[in-house]
Prior knowledge:
Blueprint: H1 9-12, E1 23-27, E2 30-38, E3 41-47, E4 65-67
Antiparallel strand pairs: 1-2, 2-3, 3-4
Amino acid sequence: MILYTPLPLERVLEGWDRVAAGVEVEAGGARLLVEACGPGLARVLRLLSTDPRDYLRPEFSPGAVLRLGPG
């Protein structure tokens, strides 16, 4: 991939070395990387599914909040 930009390389690559601190969970038949954001709640950081249909589900989009556990 070639990226043409007037920005300096340091600015373009800023933050790429940081790893998201999350936990892998399975929800709705898909694997997700999530971070806790409250009791029984988790925010989606990344979808780790190989099924293309999972990427069309809005509840799995990054930033979405899921309710984990029973109920």
